[in-house]
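Researcher: I'm preparing a figure for a lab meeting and need a structural model of a single chain. I don't have an experimental structure, so a prediction will have to do for now. The sequence is pasted below. Please return the structure as tokens so I can convert it later.
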Amino acid sequence: MSKALFLDRDGTLIVDKHYLADPAGVELLPGVVDGLRRARDLGYRLFLFSNQSGVSRGYYTLEDALRVNDRMEKLIGLPAPLFDGVCMATETPDQPMVYRKPSPRFIHEMIAHHTLDPQQCIMVGDRETDIEAGLAAGIRAAALANGKLTRDAWARFNFPALAIHDDFTAFAATLR
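Model: Understood. Here is the structure written out token by token.
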């Protein structure tokens, strides 16, 4: 069985620009390239899991979101394919939740499809829904306090056994 990281995109791997539709606006967060390289070197499979309600809201198309992903992958520059699976959850918060985080559906599907060991899988993100998705899927979760939420704010959620890291670099340093 394999180990894996489920990674949020905006605010985790790239700067969160709120409904980013233009690939030219992609900016990697510090430490992402080295952190992803370390994860791959340690045998982690990588999965991208991002809420993209801007599609259903009509702000941009799914093709725009995928072009942003392509730009991000080019900037990361690691051998392709970078991700073993990608989920762009396009539902808005008021639509029935299928893949939108905190739904664990994508994680469950990838664990089954890729024969992943849930005990060796981690959901990494910068928002409460990222963590909720990971915990609902029965995997570990790691919160990044690099933007929306501080360490103190994360601690107030009282998530069980939540690892809180200052940024992706700090998270990646803990991987074994």
